[in-house]
TrEMBL record:
Keywords linked to the UniProt accession: ATP-binding, Magnesium, Manganese, Metal-binding, Nucleotide-binding, Nucleotidyltransferase, Transferase
Known catalytic reactions: L-tyrosyl-[protein] + UTP = O-(5'-uridylyl)-L-tyrosyl-[protein] + diphosphate; L-threonyl-[protein] + ATP = 3-O-(5'-adenylyl)-L-threonyl-[protein] + diphosphate; L-seryl-[protein] + UTP = O-(5'-uridylyl)-L-seryl-[protein] + diphosphate; L-histidyl-[protein] + UTP = N(tele)-(5'-uridylyl)-L-histidyl-[protein] + diphosphate
Name of this protein: Protein nucleotidyltransferase YdiU
Keyword Kinase listed: no
UniProt organism field: Vreelandella sulfidaeris
Necessary cofactors: Mg(2+); Mn(2+)
Function, in words: Nucleotidyltransferase involved in the post-translational modification of proteins. It can catalyze the addition of adenosine monophosphate (AMP) or uridine monophosphate (UMP) to a protein, resulting in modifications known as AMPylation and UMPylation.
EC number(s) given by UniProt: 2.7.7.-, 2.7.7.108
InterPro entries: SelO (IPR003846)
Signal peptide: none
Similarity field: Belongs to the SELO family.
Residues involved in Mg(2+) binding: 255, 264
């Protein structure tokens, strides 16, 4: 009888699993009742070097954890974290499993992880499961971020479990498969530091340098260079988030990726009407993670990262603390420089225009006071920059409750903007201003339909948010800001 060859989808390696316990603990998925495939990201699979894609039934078995993927060796990662400022020495993957790493087409090592696959040694009181809503939200938002070129974990697959999970009420369960440059967080370093085992900490830091920041190895102090590199990546990331109105919602140190990717989407949301103090997450009652607080919080998280690295660094005593503090302070100038660059792009100005900062500041205050939708404003401004017709001007002025002020602003801006005459700047302006974002009410609509068994709205929204500069009729419909009745005021993390 001829042997039936197993289709090889991913060629797994297991470098993280060579690190000492308890950074990685072997553990298995708990099977679910009836896995059914919702979505599989074939282009990402291709990027990961997948050779042969099996049928949806096999995919559902694999990406629910019901059947081990060939070559996978599952384990949970240990990490600690400051949650809303309070230190918890042991969190870890309570409902996630690392299957292994894959070397992608660009030669980069990427983690493949199941989320919602059952209890692990780190589950504490949790059920190890995930409701369908947060799985769909993470799929949509992370793939939108990727389409915008914003560093992020990716969505490889989503599967319904055929089981219910109980949160505020019973909800359908699901398993999400995500791909990350790694799942190493500031909290992973805090966990290693809390073990009071310098060899463990050093093994982790060396792994990270080798994997994410190989140039640091040649620095006078590789661990200081590691800190510098992570600070730079985070500064850039937060500036990119804010340029599209993204509010992460739970910027705990355990949700802060060392590779500088957006990770753990939870109750994230995009700001609609511009408001620096905006918060959507139901659990962020102190408004710690409000839109405009994000840079200061990222910097605070990086200071916690720096503290864990101090024992490995070369200098000692006050001089060491001073050096590390200077590196953390540099976050501010790196963030500002990146933000300025993005603001010039968003406004269609020359790359180093000295007017970018004052013009953006005054537009932000107009958006705030005039109750303007951030995404719609920049989209309309892009249209007006490319073709300054009365129609485009009216469309823009219709977005504010204070048209006279905006008219005055437009005159100052027009004297500066170059996007319409300079093809490079015009491409930069378009690419900085998406037509569509995954709006909260649209994401909610998709989740509501899925809870009724209808996944068509999910696939439609996914198709348009992953082409965020397209202007199809469908995209325009789904891009429109929420009406008063449609507004989603609160989001939940679903844990
Ligand atoms: P999160 O808020 O999703 O970033 O999770 C914070 C911590 O709680 C992490 O250690 C998670 O693994 C854990 N956790 C969240 N939800 C669950 C769950 N349903 N079961 C077990 N652990 C969970
Ligand atoms: Mg988390």
């Amino acid at each position: 009888m001829p042997l039936k060859a197993e289709p090889i989808v991913l060629s797994f390696e297991h470098l993280y699993a060579t690190l000492p316990k308890p950074l990685w603990v072997a553990t298995q998925a708990t099977p679910v009742a009836q896995p059914e495939l919702i979505a599989f990201n074939a282009s990402l699979a291709d990027e990961l070097g997948a050779k042969e894609i099996p049928d949806p039934t096999t995919l559902a078995q694999w990406f629910s954890g019901n059947q081990a993927m060939p070559g996978a060796k599952s384990g949970a990662l240990g990490y600690a974290g400051h949650q809303f400022g309070n230190f918890v020495p042991q969190l870890g993957d309570g409902r996630a499993l690392l299957l292994g790493e894959v070397i992608d087409q660009n030669g980069l090592r990427r983690d493949v992880q199941l989320k919602g696959s059952g209890r692990t040694p780190f589950s504490r009181g949790g059920d190890g499961r995930s409701p369908l809503g947060p799985v769909l939200r993470e799929y949509l938002v992370s793939e939108f971020m990727a389409a915008m070129g914003i560093p992020t974990t990716r969505a490889l697959a989503a599967v319904t479990s055929g089981e219910r999970v109980v949160r505020q009420m019973a909800e359908p369960g699901a398993v999400f498969t995500r791909v990350a440059s790694s799942h190493i967080r500031v909290g992973t370093f805090q966990f290693a530091a809390a073990q009071r085992n310098e060899a463990l900490l050093k093994a982790l830091a060396d792994h990270v340098i080798d994997r994410h920041y190989p140039e640091a190895v040649n620095a006078e102090d590789p661990y200081m260079a590691l800190l510098e590199a992570v600070v730079a990546r985070q500064a850039e990331l937060i500036a990119r988030w804010m340029s599209v109105g993204f509010i992460h919602g739970v910027m705990n140190t355990d949700n802060c990726s060392i590779a500088g990717e957006t990770i753990d989407y939870g109750p994230c949301a995009f700001m609609e009407q511009f408001d620096p103090q905006k918060v959507y997450s139901s659990i962020d009652q102190g408004r710690r993670y409000a839109f405009a607080n994000q840079p200061a919080i990222a910097q605070w998280n990086l200071a916690r990262f720096a503290e864990t690295l101090l024992p490995l660094m070369r200098e000692e005593g006050d001089a060491l603390v001073q050096q590390a503090t200077d590196v953390i302070r540099r976050f501010e100038s790196l963030f500002s420089a990146e933000q300025l660059r993005l603001h010039a792009d968003k406004l269609g100005l020359a790359a180093k225009s000295p007017q970018a900062a004052p013009l953006m500041e005054s537009l932000e205050s107009q958006m705030h006071q005039g109750r303007m939708d951030m995404t719609a404003t920049f989209d309309a401004l892009t249209h007006y920059a490319f073709s300054p017709s009365d129609e485009h001007r009216e469309a823009l002025l219709a977005l504010t409750t204070q048209p006279n002020e905006l008219t005055a602003w437009l005159e100052t801006w027009q004297a500066e903007q170059v996007a319409s005459q300079d093809s490079q700047r015009s491409a930069a302006m378009r690419n900085a201003n998406p037509v569509i974002i995954p709006r909260n009410h649209r994401v909610q609509e998709v989740i509501d339909a899925a809870y009724q068994g209808d996944f068509a709205p999910f696939h439609t929204l996914l198709a348009v948010v992953t082409q965020p500069f397209d202007e199809s009729v469908e995209a325009r419909r789904l891009a429109a800001p929420a009406t008063e009745n449609e507004q989603v005021l609160r989001t939940f993390c679903g844990t």
